[in-house]
Structure formats: structure tokens, C-alpha cells
Amino acid sequence: MGLYDPSSWERAFVATGTKTGVQTVTDFHDGTVYNVSIASGIVTPGAPTGGKTMPVYDMRVLGPGYVGFFDAETNQLINISTHDGKFYVAASSLKTNDAQGQFHGGYTAETKSKIINPKYLRRLVKVNPNDATQCIVEIGDVTNGVSCTCDLPNSVCDKNFTCGESYFLRVDLTGTPSLRTFGHNFNRVFQANGGCCDGSVVSNVDPANIYLQWAEAINADMQMKDFIRAFVVVNGNTYAQDTATATALGLAGTFADIPAVLEALAEGVASKSGMIIQGAYVDTTFGNCSFMPDDYYGVEPIQVLASEVDWSGQNCTFETLCVHIAKKGTQANGLGEEKLRTVIMSESYGQNFFPTDIRMREVEQSTQLHNVIDRNTKYSSFFITHSVPRFNNPTGIFDNDQYRLNIIGVANTAAEGQPSDATADILDTAFTAYLTVNAGTPDAVAVENASGTTATAYVFPEI
Question: b/e for 367-383, b at 16 or more Cβ within 10 A?
Fold first, then answer.
């Protein structure tokens, strides 16, 4: 979630460093030793040395991946939760030496924001990451009769299948993966047969036989198998196509075991069966060596729809097959892929471009970015939006420059029930205290987020 705002200048500050606890920093000018405390990439002052805390230019001593807050007048490290007045944000450089430009400030010099006046704070937002969820579609009875759920009103969990009939299941794939691969939403119709009747007597067949045929056809389809996988559920036990999948997921067995399970049932007793279709699409990705910022990376999961149809693909006369979308696919948030590109864009504004030539990346230390942002990890973000008024505007029109600071930090790793150690949560707590110190208790409103829960957002008056 980038929270892109075309009316704001955005700058990224990376707080993903691994140092924690009390640290000492030796001033690279005069050798003074300062005490600092680090938690989740955020640096706060320890016991003062000679009445002073660490100056901003010593951020480079910590190395890449640390963010601190500094007094606007003294340029010394502060604890933002107790600070009264103006401040600015500074992050240690993402580069580790000055071989490129030691005569113009140096590439290891810290990255700083504009001075932030609490009067002109506009918005504070924290965004914690979340994992993607696969789309899961349940067909038939996958709960052994305990809590079967059907999405259509006329559907039944234990649909009767008879001999002498063919049954057709249409599966539709929607979403970006399907559109990128086929240029359109994709569907297939899979056939299952009830087998021959004994003379003129029409009898029911065990539903597991129908679901097994559908599942085997789906998993064998040359195009569908790259997007979804099907499982069969018999009397509450789930079976996979192959042994490797069954073992990895701790399932009851494979499709080959199902006939024996049905044979063991008492005469005239049918199983309670169904099938599960699970989204399973994974994009092709390239390693860090050949990484390009404009490489595509997918965030939208495949969505799956299923319905019974006739031989021509029409479903208007078929309503009894129980189909339930147990879980819609949701996209991940806070991906390293997105954060890395955010940092690359931000650094480019500071004239630290990310070369496309692999050797130039080594020369210009651009490969250091992969040390602070792992593409396979998720990160939290804390956004600070503030404005800087133009009191002396030559045009005579009063306006403001607006800035959005994106502090990218670690995700929560604390055990369940313990306080979150996510960078965004730490800063949320700190700025709640800062606002109380500087502006009294701010107006708060309940905001419903994407997960349906409520969070608190701070509302600031417009200038």
C-alpha cells in the first residue's frame, strides 16, 4: 500500500536495521561516545554525554537501515514521544562508503526531511503488512455433514448423482493472472460420468466418484493446473492428487486411496463427499542479480468460480449442486517488492539512481539496497504527511508544499499476546504521545479498515 498522493512530495526512510538494545556511537569528528537505544530500526537517545545526545551527522556510524528524530534547533537526537516543538526525520545512508563523492558531502551522509512543525502536521497513518490468502471454493459436502454451506438457495449438500448420466462442472478463473496469461478470463468445462446402469434400473452412484473425476480432470488440465489445484473430501477426510502434496499438507492420502475407502462402506451406504478447489498460481520471479525495477510482480490472487452446467455450458437449469466460496483471494500488503521500488524511486529524487547495468550497480553500491530491503519479506510503513507554508511567495498567493514521509520498517515478530514490535506500531505509540504534548489530545475518529476492524485516525485542522 503506497498511499500515493500526487499533491505530496514523498520520501522514503528505511528502518530495517538489525541492531537492537543499547548501543554506543563514536563521533567520527572528535571521538565523543554517545549512548543510543535501538528498537525495530528506530534510534532514540540514551544517557546524555556532556549534556548532549548524538548529533545527526553520526547516523552514518550506525550503518544502513536506521531512522531517528532530531531537534530542529540543536540537531541532536530526541525521543519523539516526549519532544516539545519542531523536529525532522533523518535516516542513515543506504550506502556504506564515499568512494563516489567524498568531496560534496558524501554518499554516506544521512537523508533528512524538511523541518516538521506540529502545527502543520496533516496526517499520520500506519500500515502493517498482511499475507495473501488463496481463493478456496468448496463443492458438495466437505464437512461430513456437520456444517455444510451452499451459496445458492436451492442447492443441497448431498446432491444425488445417477448412473447413465454425465455431469459437467464449469470452472472460471478471473483476475490479473488469468488476464495476463490468456488476455481474458479463462474457463474450462470438466466432465464426469455416472457409469452404465444395470439394465433399465436407474440407481444412484456414490458422489465421491463424480468429484474424483472432476478433480483428476482439473489437475491434469495443461492450463488449469498452473492456476488451481483440486482435492477430494470423503467423509471429512481430504485426499490430494499425489503423495508429495498429501504428505506436505498432512492429508489422509491420495486419490488412489479413495476406491478402497468406498469399498469399505456398508452396502447401500453412500459417502458424504465433496471437493475443494484452491487457487495456486505463482508468478515467475528473477533473482537480485538480474532484478529490474520495472519487472512485473503480482499481488492479486487468482479468483475461482464454479458451477454445474449442461453439455453446452449453460448453467441456468442446474441449481442443486452445492458451491460455496469459502474464502475469496486477497492480496498481500507490505511486500518487499513494493517497498524496494519505493526506496529506488525516493533515492532517484536525491540523484542516487539505480543503474540498469549490473556492473554499474556494483560500482555505485546500488546492490546495498538488497541488504536493507529483502524482496521476500514483508514490511510495515508509517506515513507522516506535513506541509511547509510559503510565507514569502513571489506570486503573492499563499500556498503550501506538502511532504509525505514513508518510514519503512520491520513487521511484527512478537509472540501472540505481546506488544507489537513492528516499526509502524512503535511510531504510532510515540506520535500519539507527541501529539498530546504538542497539541493536546487530538480529535480521533473511528475508521473501518480493509479487514473490517476499526482503527483510530488522527484528524488535523486545515490551514
Answer: bbbbebbebeebbbbbb
